[in-house]
Amino acid sequence: MMNTFEQYESEVRGYCRSFPAMFTSAKGAWMIDAEGRRYLDFFCGAGVLNYGHNPDKIKQALLAYLMRDGITHSLDMYTEAKQAFIARFNDVILQPRGLRYKFQFPGPTGTNAVEAALKLARKVTGREQVVGFTNAFHGMTLGALAVTGNGFKRAGAGVPLGHTASVPFDGYLGEGTDTLDYFEALLKDEGSGMDKPAAVIVETVQAEGGVNVASVEWLQRLRRITEEHGVLLIVDDIQVGCGRTGAFFSFEEAGIVPDIVTLSKSLSGYGLPLALVLIKPELDQWAPGEHNGTFRGHNPAFVTATAALRFWQDGLLAEDVARKAGLVEKRLTDIVAKHAPGARVRGRGLIWGIEFDDTQLAARISQACFKRGLIIETAGIDDQVLKLLPSLTIAEEELRHGLDVIEAGLREALSVDNVSPAIEAAA
Question: What CA–CA distance (Å, rounded) separates 348 from 409?
């Protein structure tokens, strides 16, 4: 079965090595392989499937659009599908939050959105440097890699990555140290060697970096510093936006308003590629065609993204995520206290991580969970963090089952005898 991939697909493939199954279908929180085995999905396409697999209302909207021969590709020409999405996003998301942004549709992936944001910030300010943070991840194209912290991924560029600076993220220097003291000192001191940047780009929760959570106070201070120094603030909400932290935007809890916001992943609500750059109106200084992309008019994704906004017509989903977040935090804290007291639990909403001092342990737990029918990935520079990313719509009993599997997987990974799943299940 796997010979086709091993023979013809590039060695660059990664997730299939961690989860070696031939998947054939999926529904809700579950994926099914060719042998009919079911796997509970705590990975969700790295945050693409916030509403689960094949949600009925979104699927029905897509099928109806395709069956009436709706436009599929339009570059940046006007279409009903794009108009409907813009209007609905304004009505459901922006206006209730008092936000005013212009919409830019770049290429269809998150890194396309980041590239557009960086390019616009440099154009508007006339400055070159962009500040990122330690352990950040913003994408795999050259501009996005330049503000990414992961040395392995940066090295893959094969060329120097310049015009950026990296400063410590919240908590990077340990508890009790406000890393923004350092950043602010650099901005104020003409002898610091830091040129005044065009922008700062930040994830409120560093997902790939190890589920590192910025505090509300830290984010609020970052916004004040950037405003005082005339530096644009870009929030990368590609993985932790669209409700992942509870509210639609991850920065809402801090009460800040970024100058530019990048969205992708779960924006389409169905796994279809779609990216969006939200720009304060006064910053929309593009000339026509100055930045473009062939697939910036992927209309089926506009259709599913519009349908996905039904989840945000009221506050019920955010409330549900908050309730589930409390359940996850308590259970993970209890599991760690019982089996791995030195480990650290952190997260927000429905993105959570357990960091272990043994950098091999998270991977062993992930493998043990996969044998038990749970898909869960690792994160962090050394893959030392077990990262939970279930769908926002997962049923509570499914969520509890997944947490049970994590505890069993942790017990196996810590066991000297490496007890088999069959023996442990019978115990």
Answer: 23
Spatial distance between the Cα atoms of 169 and 7, rounded to a whole number of angstroms: 42
* Sheet of strand 102-104: strand arrangement: 102-104, 276-279, 260-263, 232-236, 199-202, 130-133, 164-167
> Cβ(198)–Cβ(231) under 8 Å?
yes
Residues 38 and 105 in one domain: no
Rounded Cα distance between 353 and 336, Å, is: 11
Write down the pTM of the prediction: 0.95
Nearest Cα neighbor of 216 from 160, 190, 255, 187 is 255
Neighbours of 397 (CB within 10 A): 8
DSSP secondary structure string, 115-145?
HHHHHHHHHHH----EEEETT----SSHHHH
CA angle 92, 94, 95 (to 5 degrees): 80
Could you tell me how many residues make up the chain? 427
End-of-domain residue from the set 289, 315, 330: 289
- Give the model confidence (pLDDT) of 312-358 as tens digits: 999 999 999 999 999 999 999 999 999 999 999 999 999 999 999 99
- Say if residue 22 is in the same domain as residue 106: no
Expressed in angstroms, the distance from the first to the final Cα of the chain is 33
Residue with tokens 């908050």: 322
CA–CA gap between residue 48 and residue 120 (Å, rounded): 25
Expressed as residue numbers, the domain containing 275 is 101-289
Say yes or no to pLDDT of 423 above 50.
Answer: no
